[in-house]
Amino acid sequence: MEERKSPSVNVVVSDLGAWGMNIISSVGIIMANKQLMSPSGFAFAFATTLTGFHFSVTALVGLVSNAAGYSASKHVPMWELLWFSIVANMSITGMNFSLMLNTISKLSMIPVVCVMEWILHGKHYSKEVKMAVTVVVVGVGICTVTDLNVNAKGFLCACVAILSTSFQQISIGSLQKRYSVSSFELLSKTAPIQALSLLILGPVIDYYLTGKLLSNYKLSSGAFFFILLSCSLAVVCNVSQYLCIGRFSAVSFQVLGHMKTVCVLTLGWLLFDSELTLKNILGVVLAVVGMVVYSSAVEVEKKANSKIIPGKESLSEEDSQLLEEENGESGVNDVELGKSIG
């Protein structure tokens, strides 16, 4: 007779799966987009429109999943979905503009997310977590930032991008808890709105960014293949993003994002003959050390909290449900692909 795995082991395996899925799909999509968008590749320079394609395919997958009964559809007010989609699209557009004008803006994401979670949810961070986050930001800054000059236009775009991205990532977790929807259900509801708006506005935004018209692009079979590959990876990336933020915190997701940056730099050096300088190596090492320290600090913080409040992992399924009912909460289970929800 097989021994059943403890709930804590299942949770760890599930969490590692979500992390791994997000890292692999994110790094994969960046590599595919590099081949698709680079001048030496297929020169498809329409990033915002491509994101519209991504959400279109994601919306289609969500529609098929709902129709086949693989996921349940719970009610989320339309105004919440519209507001979230507007903020998410502002994040995408603002980041495209911001990174075109200056590269330093992405390093502000973790500090801003920390401040916003403190303001909106009263969340506090230990001294060890703050130190680890600082080390990660400094490390990634050393190996990625190429321009410290920020003009007025770049500063404005950076502010819009940082605030909207931070708010979007915090909102994913809060919406899932507030309306008891799984990560995939929430994504299925927001993807069609984002797809429609980005497909309409994307070509205009891309023309402003690149000076090129989408209608003038000559689509080859190779470019079409990489667009399909990019869209397929985007579905996995989007689902895993919602999974990660729903399970962890927006700050942890930002640390994960910088881990992906390190992976992209390394793969770029291995696969695309990108230049790897001593500065890059130093930054990568520092960032990895920061991530290890961050993981350790978060684990220590969890153990300290578990001494005060018993974690759900230590409770039986029935006890967990009773505890949630007492607190006025209902559990949110992420969709299990291939398993019909009756």
From TrEMBL:
GO cellular component terms given for this protein: membrane
Highest taxon above the source species: Eukaryota
Comp. bias intervals (Acidic residues): 316-328
Record membrane topology: Multi-pass membrane protein
The keyword Transmembrane is assigned to this record: yes
All copies of domain Sugar phosphate transporter, residue ranges: 27-295
Pfam family, one: TPT
Keywords noted in UniProt: Membrane, Transmembrane, Transmembrane helix
Membrane-spanning ranges: 44-69, 81-101, 186-209, 221-239, 251-272, 278-297
Entries under InterPro entries matching the protein: EmrE-like, Sugar_P_trans_dom, TPT_transporter
Ranges for region Disordered: 315-342
Compartment annotation: Membrane
Protein name (record): Udp-rhamnose/udp-galactose transporter 2
Species of provenance: Quercus suber (Cork oak)
